[in-house]
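Let's do one together. I've listed all components of the complex below, 546 residues spread over two lines.
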Amino acid sequence: MSELIVIKIGGGEGIKPDAALGEIAGLVRAGVRVVLVHGGSHETNILSEKLGRPPTFITSPSGHTSRRTDRETLKIFEMAYCGKVNKGIVETLRRAGVDAVGLSGIDAGLWTGKRKSAIRSVDADGRTVVIRDDLSGRVERVDDRFLRLLLDDGRTPVLTPPAMSDEGVAMNVDADRAAAATAAALGADELLLLSNVPGVLRDPEDRSSLIETVSSLDEVRRAAKGRMKNKVLGAEEALSGGVGRVVIGSASGASPVADARSGCGTVFEGAIA
Amino acid sequence: MSELIVIKIGGGEGIKPDAALGEIAGLVRAGVRVVLVHGGSHETNILSEKLGRPPTFITSPSGHTSRRTDRETLKIFEMAYCGKVNKGIVETLRRAGVDAVGLSGIDAGLWTGKRKSAIRSVDADGRTVVIRDDLSGRVERVDDRFLRLLLDDGRTPVLTPPAMSDEGVAMNVDADRAAAATAAALGADELLLLSNVPGVLRDPEDRSSLIETVSSLDEVRRAAKGRMKNKVLGAEEALSGGVGRVVIGSASGASPVADARSGCGTVFEGAIA
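Okay, and this is what the predicted structure of the assembly comes out as:
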């Protein structure tokens, strides 16, 4: 069976996916099977502002941040992620000769899981409040059979949140962990999580403090702050799910995919304690 | 082989697809294969207004109207059609037990064709101007093999514009004619074009002037005004492409799909001169 790679390209500010998309076209031409997962947070922020509903974020007591997603926000989220970003990427990939198929996690029941019925959020004054109507959750199951149907037919899936809750409601999910769940379900050889940081930094302010090879999960867990926490969790989930190698790396530069594959970034490989 | 129906639900003002979606769930449960095509023009108008880019329309010398689609409009179009409307329909269908897969015409190269390199537009003063940078065109080819792959796997495709031009650029296409091309490519038993009018009217102001059974194409061609012209063209293209029966009917009421199937609307069937 040919090599299978799951590549996640973040949707944060300043990330331009074009170089990575060109590389993905090259990989597909060379016979590598690729599943691309992307975010869209910056486009969602812009659209939310333009529509007069500035984004708000939830910070959990343990320091995870996530978008506050009520029903109206979810519609804006779908417009940005599934409309603007997904179709833009599909158009670019197809023009580069890739038989791309853009899907959200709700299509074909690709990504399903539990919605969070109560989210603890720490407000600006340090008080903890409980939010019960947030449309967010976590991917627990991946319809890998459908993805294999597409891959076996020579197609390249381009996947994006939302996912579907067990009650049949679209929900916001973390795209890094969704990519990790996808890589695990497919038994991918490699998972690349590319964004606007070079990897896990010992000091988030110092890009030279990159952890290059993960020898201790405790160390990366301690180092990871904010959104990086989800990437590290995703990396752990992918590894324990059977993925051979995970790299958290940068989406920037002329060859971000090749760079990550050659080990630029934070590399998780093999048995890590 | 089980029955195959292509159903197009318009995206015009006042159209609520929920009743039709409930019926489609019933048909799929009963073993009928359904391909759903939908529009999104009203949502695109609303989003365009909110984003400070009010929609503009082109009227051809022969009276066809179409959305003026520059690059920025196409992104708004994709957010409304592929984001908000498509994912909303997929969510509703999945909750009703349908294994829906939402796709645009650019995904998997489903809908391809020629972009119009020059569009003649009649302006308010009756002058004809030529527009060369519009991103619009017509579906000439349908990847019916991919649609069959989905249908054979028990999935229900939910399709929406844009389509892909031969040069690899996303373009606005008429969803009625795209549905007709899809029905023809699949050799569908039936094509239903449901919108906010009861069918082809002899007098557009008089809803009782409905042409019920088409015995002469000349008569419906003469009667069809504005957007109805595309529905009639689509009906003709579907029939000449081998579709057994086409009904142009209303998307309103408690059972619009059953109503159209039972002949409420304008029915095109068999050999028509």
